[in-house]
Design a protein that fits this description.
about 350 residues, alpha/beta, Alpha-Beta Plaits, TIM Barrel, eight-stranded parallel β-barrel, homotetramer, elongated, about 15% strand, 2 domains
């Protein structure tokens, strides 16, 4: 950590700060320039915040050199984390590794709907079934999901198809219902619900964490760090679009996050093109971009009858469009030494 | 609600949509133009989402005419909501009504610190004490607050000073600890933690809801609506700065939200200048702006020794600066027929 | 255009507005609902602004149904516009059409540098040479480009390699220098410099217009409309990243803009991955995404010695990396029935 | 300037960089930590860009310590700049200094309209008349202003009322028409039109520079620096709202910019509440906030018949509302030791 002091800082103020830091176990390098004096801190700075220094009025600026996430950092864990879940393998294990494809309806609406869609996405090559039982809706008057009953239907679909399931947990009080769930999803609006992260981190299951609507990549990794500090090893990072000044798409897909995160962390990174654009006709195009930038998987909303969907029909693919997309994406994956479909 | 159909929509598609809507109890006005056909829906559209229409590929655009919040809307409840809490009255009851001033440290750190600050802010004219026991920190390695012990200290400070207390609830599992707390705060990061909102809405206490970092004013009111639909009547809306492209301030204070919300809702609206700018020297200036635009109150961080604060020292005022600010703000309030200090 | 009036608008106010609009030649459809009265305007609304209606206090909201751009709209001109320039063809003419590849240094620095890079990018398959002579720099103290001398060197490079050239025009007073320039570039900071657009629109040359840092897609198309209304037929739209709350990349590549614009306009759309991310190691990844989403071309910064570059060295590819990228991109293009390299 | 190198940078790379910098006249302080090596540069770094260092792959990060603006910096020029213009004085000269009030219609529409409004705003206490002759409109089909004829009418209004005038210049080719204009306005969309800034900087007149829609405060000051480096001494900085994710107001007034800029620069800072919110009913509220935060002036749109205005009628005040506002603002100014109205 580098602390820049203002030009005319009084020597005793410097001394006091330095001795406080030395008491906490840091070594301090002092460098005096014309415009500023610079303190370099050596030691484990992950417990320090930049802001705490700024409460001293003689501190001009603070810059963190090493990252404040450790467990999530590739520097700490150079090899890719590989998450196994049913037949699915999430993360790049080796050349020719399959991408993870997670598909299913936005919300679980009925047994028939879910099984129909589950069979369809399985046939098309998806390895994991998604479906919302607890739904975070902007309006309290919108359909809030089937709740516990929805989880039961997901478990039935899992049994019927053999597909592992991922579904969103919105409150730790629902955790007992999630026994048979394979991957716990934490939604974008809960990315900084730290109490939930701490509890889910202790659940011993893979977690799919969606990036918050206006979360920086560093805040995203700090939320991963909450999960990992609580015990999680298997965290899947999911980019689902961010909020910007324009609204021609539901959100703005920040595609650059994939290479950046893959450099910075050892964890798999996937893209959810459905929520990113919010328009079914654009989903296949963005899915291709996701594969082209090397995402470790995609998560796509599929519905057997989009106009009748209780949620997100406007961004759901029909099973036919999805199956066609899978064949196209497989060719894209091949260009990067990976594949989407089993041989 | 107004639904614009694409120019060449087939008549049978229109018929199907119209009869589906009529079955749900809406009256439909059809207006045919050269460029588009427009359906006007009459009835309670608060359960409909704009998006659901867009799953039909012949729908061009959807526009909501009436607001989707009801309980929070001034149209529904024309008179100002007045919240009483100890000696404090939050909301504009009558001419010369006092503004609510909430002050205290970012986090509760010790009995001595809290009582010292509580006495100081009371002496300066604050009517409500703030202090965090459970702290949402970006890093899991930062100080997370004193937890249950912090709540106990807040209750002790309440007893010692007679000031009602407001403190943040991050998980519904902590609710039992909040028995003696006067106002429950929901933080910006939990503004769309809908499960928490539903539970807190049933707690029978005033709620101070902070606007999310990237929440539109409509989303903000929809989160209020979650609280009110669950039972809350007394909700205080708090603007604390939003996230934009610039970072010279910690957040960007969106001062215009005060007149807009006061027009749209009957609930009191307050400003937190400390989190908005993140720099103690700027807090008094923004507090004046808050009073000038007619905010119903302010919430300010005060610490007896900012450089030693465990959290947010850089944005905390000393008791002296705070006391001086209160006297200045009182003169600003007088220009709008209100006051800050008791006579 | 649809104008929603407030619930209790006085009949005479409605009458006045309607007769004013009828005088301007519009037909008005009136539809009365419980919550609002709606006026539907039929006629050429492109000269009306939404805001002008809002100056009447009884107008609740205004919604444009048809787009306010005409010449740029695909509705007006269904076939793809194809721009020919030297051997380059920009736009999708037919299956197997080549993508346009524009490459070269950020700024022209010397004859040797420019010819070296021009030969290298030509050999790798680029069809158009880029290079800045007039540079828009944030600081007046940074290198501002070689100016007229830089244009001369570009013309020399054009002669030496046969590659057509594109370079940025910042002021209409420079236009005489651009006689031999094949494509005039208007930079992101000048996207709404309307006087410049009007003049350049009369220049009779293809124009490459970069999207502004915080321009909506509609504003982008309105700036295109300025060019076309002034006479331009051949406009190339270039996405180069937008400004958001995060800064881990120089800008945020808004990849979704490609399919959206290609649906909305007949003009070619290209991506500049160099400015989008600002880091050379990420450029190839984003270039793949550009091809995967169907962009009609890419514009890439290439420098023979990036650390010594006077501008943007950190985002410039070396000729070797660029040549390797071209071979990879050719395989991506093939998946969409296009190609990058000549047979 | 501080340059952080990656942990395992090869010694010869460090040596090469250091000797290159020493050749350019910088003194280099090297500080070696566990995590990084840090170079501190002493000398005039205003010609260096942070990015140029990043083209070396062993550079981790670069931080500027001193600001890159000099002429605009208060460090360089500690006293407030005071701009005199007719009877108006812009900038805080002394206690009880008047705030500058600039008022008038969005666009000049006719002699009668302009003289009427000019007389009204003068009577209400405004010291400077505004009015647009050249209008930057999003659509080429919207009213573009009266042009040269509009300037003539402004000069006539100046003669009739004695008020100095400010009006927007969009192209340097119009400069001859601006002979009698007192203050040249550069609009938000041209804030980074550097060629225009350079030319206007040589015009020898005060310049009112509006902050760009998505310009950081540092970019804003760098554009001021362009003007000053070209010769301007008298620059007025105008905040008129920025672009964010929300659109309930036309733009988002960033009120915090006033204290920040006043600390950082010696130049006067004013607020344009009309463009910030875009709704006439909110303008007076934001104007109070502007005075409360210590702005050196305000710029307000006033029209004698807002619903008939050719531009921005929805945000224009009537003369009566404006006159009432002036009386209120005078009381706000008094609280900060200033005044709005002459005694």
């Amino acid at each position: 950590m580098i602390v820049v002091l203002k030009p005319n800082t009084r020597p005793d103020a410097v001394e006091t700060l330095v001795s406080q830091l030395e008491e906490k176990g840091f070594k301090i390098h002092i460098s005096r320039g014309e415009e500023a004096m610079v303190l370099g801190l050596v030691g484990d700075t992950s417990r320090l915040t930049e802001e705490s220094f700024l409460a001293n009025d003689f501190v001009e600026r603070v810059m963190r050199v090493s990252s404040s996430y450790k467990l999530a950092s590739r520097a700490f864990h150079p090899d890719n984390t590989i998450i196994r879940c049913g037949n699915a393998v999430i993360g790049r294990e080796a050349n020719n590794a399959r991408l993870a494809v997670i598909a299913g309806p936005c919300s679980v609406e009925s047994r028939e709907q879910l099984i129909t869609v589950a069979n369809a996405v399985k046939a098309a090559g998806a390895q994991i079934l998604r479906g919302g039982a607890f739904k975070p809706r902007t309006s309290p008057y919108s359909f809030q999901g089937m709740g516990a009953e929805g989880i039961k239907l997901l478990l039935a679909a899992k049994e019927a198809t053999g597909l592992p399931i991922v579904t969103e947990l919105m409150s730790i009080n629902q955790i007992d219902l999630f026994d048979g769930v394979d991957i716990i999803q934490i939604g974008a609006r809960n990315m900084q619900n730290y109490d939930l992260l701490k509890e889910v981190g202790m659940a011993g299951k893979p977690v799919l964490l969606k990036r918050g609507l206006s979360s920086t990549v560093k805040e995203f990794l700090m939320s991963v760090e909450y999960l990992m500090a609580a015990g999680s090893r298997d965290v899947i990072l999911c980019e689902r679009g961010i909020r910007t000044f324009d609204s021609y798409t539901r959100n703005t897909l920040d595609i650059s996050v994939v290479p950046w995160l893959q450099k910075e962390t050892h964890l798999p990174v996937i893209i959810d093109p459905s929520h990113a654009c919010g328009m079914s006709w654009m989903v296949p195009t963005l899915a291709k971009a996701a594969v082209a930038v090397g995402a470790d998987g995609i998560m796509v909303e599929v519905h057997n009858n989009p106009p009748a969907a209780l949620c997100d029909g406007e961004q759901s693919l029909t099973p036919d469009v999805f199956a066609d997309l899978m064949r196209q994406l497989d060719r894209y994956a091949a260009l990067e030494g990976r594949k989407l479909l089993s041989a």
